[in-house]
Amino acid sequence: MADNSENCTHNCSSCSSNCKSRDLHVSLREGASVRKVIAIVSGKGGVGKSLVTSLLACKMNKLGKKTAILDADITGPSIPESFGLSHERAVGDGNALFPVMSKNGIQLMSMNFLLEHENDPVIWRGPVIAGAVKQFWTDVNWKDVDYMFVDMPPGTGDVPLTVFQSLPISGIIVVSSPQQLVSVIVQKALKMAKTMNIPVLGLIENMSYVKCPDCNKEIKIYGESNIEEVAAQFEVPLLGKIPIEQNISSAVDSGNIEDLDIPYVDKACEAVQKL
Q1: Which helix (DSSP H) or strand (DSSP E) does residue 252 occupy?
Q2: For the segment 43-79, what is each residue's pLDDT rounded down to a tens digit?
Q3: Which of 15, 80, 168, 269 has the smallest number of CB atoms closer than 10 Å to its CB?
C-alpha cells in the first residue's frame, strides 16, 4: 500500500483511511541508528519542555548513554541556546546532514542550525513545518544513539501528529506547571497520546515552587498544584517536580546546561531506562 501520509489533512473524521492499521513510520537514512525515541510534550507553550528535554539528555549522557535531541519546535527553537551553540551551523555532505555536537557529545539538530542568522523567523505553514521535522529524522546522520529526546512544540496540531505517526515513539513525558489552566491543557496532550496509542511514561511539573533562602520553606507562587490528581486520573506516574532556581536559569541563559548536576529528573531517567 502506498504511503499517503504526505497528503494527510489530519482531519480523521472525514478520512476513509484506517491509519491505525498502517505503519506510517519513516525510516532513518542508511547508516543512522536510534534505539529509543522519547517525546517531551505539553498542550501549552512556556511550561519548560525544552528545559526538561535538555536535562534528560544531559543526565542520560552522564550515565554513559549516547543521547540526542531533535528540536521539533521549528518556529521557536531554544535548544542551541541552552547548550551554548546558537552560533553553530549544521553541515552536510550532499547526502545527509550531520548533527551538531555539544561539548559532552550530545547530538543536536535544530532549525536554528540551518538559518543564516539565529534570529531569522521561520514563516512557514503547518504542513511545511511538519515536513521539516520529518526530515530531521530521515536526513540527519544520527550515529549510534541510545536515547533520542524530541523537544515538541506546544499543542496537538500538525507537528505532534507528524511526530507520533512518523517516528517510532517509545513513550512521551508530559510537562506541566502548577497553574490550573495548564492542567486542563495537559489533559488534552494526555488524551491525544491515548488516542494514538502512545505510551505515557509520566508527568513532570516545572516551576513547582521556590525555596526560601532563609528558612528553606517551599513557596508555591502559582498556588497549589493538582498534578497528583491529574496523574491519578490518567493512571500515569508523577516523575518529578522542578523548582524555580537561579542556578538552573543561569546555566540555561549562559549555554552551560551540561554543567548542571541536579536530581529533579532522576526518576524520569529511571523510567526511560526501563523502556
Answers
A1: helix 246-253
A2: 778 889 999 999 999 999 999 999 999 999 998 899 9
A3: 15
Burial 23-51 (b: 16+ CB within 10 A, else e): ebebebeeebebebbbbbbbbbeebbbbb
DSSP per position, 93-109: -SS-EEPEEPTT--EEE
Is residue 66 within 8 Å of 99, Cβ to Cβ?
A: no
Amino acid at site 163? V
Instruction: Tally the residues of the chain.
Output: 275
Convert the pLDDT of each residue in 96-112 to its tens digit: 999 999 999 999 999 99
DSSP result, 51-79? HHHHHHHHHHHHTT--EEEEE--SSS--H
CA-derived radius of gyration, the chain: 18
CA–CA distance, 32 with 141 (Å, rounded to integer): 5
